[in-house]
């Protein structure tokens, strides 16, 4: 599937900073459903607070009902949003025509005056973040069966982005708040605002580091090297959250100052991985839970080239690939990291999110052996 319909438009805009939104509006005609501001204002009861679904880094999301009765999520980008017209177009470019049951569908947009609004399919059951890690009132009871489906569905969505699109898409911000749960709890990956086109013929894109601390792959956080394997790393951290019901953003797991991944490695070494399991989970098959945790460790290895592809991850989760444990080289992978020139905030972010974890990596990690 080809999804590069707006590439030219984005680069035109780069050349011409005075490029007007009206001009863009013209360019979008026929490529995506264009809503008027009035249509969306009516759908959301004038963007009324009672319809507010949440607020993200780029603006506020409202629930709306279109004239034809279809429910939508309307993401109004704030005027002061860091997401400029380029990113807006990138988001549209990336998600238009990209359809998969595990991806949130972009239905249309509105580019009128200074308004930049995205219209997505409405996803019923809030974000995984709220359901799993949120306040008690927002929490949803997710049994082991649902958790398997969420892991597998998310993996299939990512596999689609990485392996089945031309050019492939690296999401760049896989995290629990970007996984929405449908009525039947099927996961849908949303928020493609940070996604970039990723042609197969280059090994990585060196780019401004975006994404969320705690989920960031070390080579991406330290060197800005972005490959599909950065998403694989984040997905590994996400599996740990799903199995444990614990947030990767906190650093107090295992009774000491430890991030979730660090604690998991410790439990792995002690052969007590089941301690990680969410205390809210009443029944679960132990061997399967351990397998999922090990897949998470495969995914979040320090060395990007040791991480599996999403194709392999789907196979590992569905038990089509046998896991085998072998000696490997993870520690010291980033000893040569050059942090000169990084601001103290950048250094803190890097160390918080990655180095402490990397330093505690054991000598033995697992390798995938196809059956
Ligand atoms: N398509 C949707 N259907 C239902 N609710 C949605 C939809 N999209 C977003 N939401 C709700 O709006 C909230 C904010 O979403 P948004 O994508 O703007 O930010 P985020 O992912 O939480 O954070 P960030 O922008 O920093 O990544 C989500 O947590 C979710 O509760």
Automatic annotation (TrEMBL):
<keyword id="KW-0418">Kinase</keyword>
<keyword id="KW-0067">ATP-binding</keyword>
<keyword id="KW-0675">Receptor</keyword>
<keyword id="KW-0325">Glycoprotein</keyword>
<dbReference type="InterPro" id="IPR008271">
    <property type="entry name" value="Ser/Thr_kinase_AS"/>
</dbReference>
<keyword id="KW-0732">Signal</keyword>
<dbReference type="InterPro" id="IPR017441">
    <property type="entry name" value="Protein_kinase_ATP_BS"/>
</dbReference>
<dbReference type="GO" id="GO:0016020">
    <property type="term" value="C:membrane"/>
</dbReference>
<feature type="binding site">
    <location>
        <position position="75"/>
    </location>
    <ligand>
        <name>ATP</name>
    </ligand>
</feature>
<keyword id="KW-0677">Repeat</keyword>
<dbReference type="GO" id="GO:0004674">
    <property type="term" value="F:protein serine/threonine kinase activity"/>
</dbReference>
<dbReference type="GO" id="GO:0005524">
    <property type="term" value="F:ATP binding"/>
</dbReference>
<comment type="similarity">
    <text>Belongs to the protein kinase superfamily.</text>
</comment>
<keyword id="KW-0808">Transferase</keyword>
<dbReference type="InterPro" id="IPR011009">
    <property type="entry name" value="Kinase-like_dom_sf"/>
</dbReference>
<keyword id="KW-0547">Nucleotide-binding</keyword>
<keyword id="KW-0597">Phosphoprotein</keyword>
<dbReference type="InterPro" id="IPR001245">
    <property type="entry name" value="Ser-Thr/Tyr_kinase_cat_dom"/>
</dbReference>
<dbReference type="Pfam" id="PF07714">
    <property type="entry name" value="PK_Tyr_Ser-Thr"/>
</dbReference>
<dbReference type="InterPro" id="IPR052059">
    <property type="entry name" value="CR_Ser/Thr_kinase"/>
</dbReference>
<keyword id="KW-0723">Serine/threonine-protein kinase</keyword>
<keyword id="KW-0472">Membrane</keyword>
<keyword id="KW-1133">Transmembrane helix</keyword>
<keyword id="KW-0812">Transmembrane</keyword>
<protein>
    <recommendedName>
        <fullName>Protein kinase domain-containing protein</fullName>
    </recommendedName>
</protein>
<feature type="domain" description="Protein kinase">
    <location>
        <begin position="47"/>
        <end position="323"/>
    </location>
</feature>
<dbReference type="InterPro" id="IPR000719">
    <property type="entry name" value="Prot_kinase_dom"/>
</dbReference>
């Amino acid at each position: 599937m080809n999804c590069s319909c707006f590439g030219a438009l984005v680069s035109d805009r780069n050349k011409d900073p005075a490029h007007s939104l009206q001009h863009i509006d013209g360019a979008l005609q026929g490529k995506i459903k264009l809503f008027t501001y009035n249509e969306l204002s009516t759908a959301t009861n004038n963007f009324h607070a009672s319809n507010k679904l949440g607020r993200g880094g780029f603006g506020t999301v409202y629930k709306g009902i279109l004239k034809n009765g279809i429910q939508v999520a309307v993401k109004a980008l704030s005027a002061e949003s860091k997401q400029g017209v380029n990113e807006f177009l990138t988001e549209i470019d990336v998600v238009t025509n990209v359809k998969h049951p595990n991806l949130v569908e972009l239905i249309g947009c509105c580019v009128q005056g200074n308004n930049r609004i995205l219209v997505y399919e409405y996803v019923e059951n809030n974000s995984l973040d709220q359901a799993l890690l949120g306040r008690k009132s927002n929490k949803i009871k997710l049994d082991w069966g649902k958790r398997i489906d969420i892991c597998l569905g998310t993996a299939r969505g990512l596999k689609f982005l990485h392996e089945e699109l031309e050019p492939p898409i690296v999401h760049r911000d896989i995290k629990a708040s970007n996984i929405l749960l449908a009525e039947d709890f099927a996961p849908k990956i949303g928020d493609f605002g940070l996604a970039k086109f990723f042609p197969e013929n280059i090994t990585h894109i060196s780019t401004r580091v975006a994404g969320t601390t705690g989920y960031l792959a070390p080579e991406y956080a330290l060197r800005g090297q972005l490959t599909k394997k950065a998403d694989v790393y984040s997905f590994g951290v996400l599996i740990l959250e799903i199995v444990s019901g614990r947030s990767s953003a906190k650093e107090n797991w295992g009774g000491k100052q430890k991030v979730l991944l660090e604690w998991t490695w410790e439990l792995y070494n002690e052969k007590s991985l089941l301690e990680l399991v969410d205390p809210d989970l009443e029944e679960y098959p132990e061997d399967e839970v351990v397998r999922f945790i090990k897949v998470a460790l495969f995914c979040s290895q320090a060395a990007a080239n040791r991480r599996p592809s999403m194709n392999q991850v789907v196979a590992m989760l569905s038990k089509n690939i046998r896991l085998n444990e072998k000696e490997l080289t993870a520690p010291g992978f980033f000893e040569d990291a050059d942090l000169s020139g990084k601001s103290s905030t950048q250094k803190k972010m890097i160390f918080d999110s990655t180095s402490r974890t990397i330093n505690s990596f054991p000598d033995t990690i697992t390798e995938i052996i196809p059956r």
